[in-house]
Amino acid sequence: MKHLFFFFFPFLLLILQFSLCNSSYLIYGEALSKSIMFFEGQRSGFLPNDQRINWRGNSGLGDGSAVNVDLTGGYYDAGDNVKFGFPMAFTTTMLAWSVIEFGEMMPPPELRNALVAIRWSTDYLLKMVAQPDRIFVQVGDPIKDHNCWERPEDMDTARTVYMVEAPNPASDVAGETAAALAASSMAFRSSDPGYSDTLLRTAIRVFGGPTAITQTLGMVLAHFTDELLWGAAWLGRASGDERYLDYIQSNAKSLGADENINEFGWDNKHAGLNVLVSKVQSNLTPFILFMFLAWIRTIKMFRLEVLEGKSYDLESYKASADSFMCTLIPESSSSHIAYTPGGLIYRPGGSNLQHSTSITFLLLTYANYLERSSTSINCGTISVGPTKLRVIAKRQVDYILGENPKGMSYMVGYSDRYPQRIHHRGSSIPSIKDHPQFIGCKEGSIYCNSSNPNPNVLVGALVGGPQEDDEYEDDRFDFKKSEPTTYINAPFVGALAFFAANPNPI
Prior knowledge:
The chain is mainly alpha-helical. The chain contains 18 helices and 7 strands. Helix 1 (about 1-40) packs parallel to helix 3 (about 110-130), helix 2 (about 85-100) runs parallel beside helix 5 and helix 3 packs antiparallel against helix 5 (about 170-185). It is globular, with a radius of gyration of 23 Å. GO terms for molecular function: cellulase activity.
């Protein structure tokens, strides 16, 4: 019997390895599906028949009526019922970038679901900027809304519409909205070219066009310079118009691209901007430039004779991107990003997973750029290649999905242990399907104050996450840790798409 065991033992190991690899694939694939499904739980407006988070109902159907415009649709960005245009636009940009960078790795049904999630937002963003010299930036009074605890289906607080008109500045929202529409135009280019063209034309108009780039809706000031460069970078990539490259090259220093702020999120685009422009820089190396131009000729995106006669120096962006990556490497002499004892990237200020997921996305995106250009990063005494960046990214993803000191998945509805008391009105109050009677502004407080688990599972939602010592209390009141947001989930979609296709990328 012992001889039989030793004979079959190597084969048992192979079978075990195979099953673990497949199990890992299924885990990341499930998480990818749920991370996209989450956005259906955040929908505002009239819900379609194929709505999968079926405890939600129609809401905000009168949004915009106070100013005689249609502002229905879009997303509630967190656990409240306000629609904030700025973080919604960033969410859209990141969903679109996920499809651009990792869409080919997504199973076709999930790619379709990701595009549906993007379009739910872009349809709304188009409404935000439909009127000349005016941008609608928010629907809902945040103070009144936050003084209530009620389902979006029951909202009886003022749906105040906030707008900015020329010549008042709104360069942050305008720049991010232009970026979102431009990136989304690329995501839809093959599946819906007509819609893609509409998005790109609108993005160019919102930004002001390449010859009037500092006159975006009459609102551009230098107070929000990262959004100006971010919007220009996405417009250059989506339109192929070399004048946007001129802009990001000539304004790099004056608009602070070399400040090397090591942060990326809805309110600061610096690290993401540097990574994005680094792809353009790598595309302008001789061989890749030749291939890039051949591709451009095929789809006739821009005037080749102009680009072919120009020399672009975007090295400052790439240098800043390299520097940012080095700060993430613990062995690097320039490392200064903090990690929890369990290995999670940590930045103080609350809702920490927004930093972890967005940085994870940049790690994987930059790893792809390094691999395609066969280059590495010099981090002082060590050289860092794509494999090292992917190892760090995988640790973040695995931590979030449950490989952490608490043994808890921070994605709701994933695994058998996840946050049960998230800070989310619709999730915490009985569904309108189960309790069709109206629940008013203060009547929902009993559900907010309850220690019971939320009755409705907001599948796929990523909460704010644990504190710097890896501790997490499942507490609805601790919104910094327990509130989900769209801008935490959006970059995680791309990361999960990569690992679903490459569960063991080492």
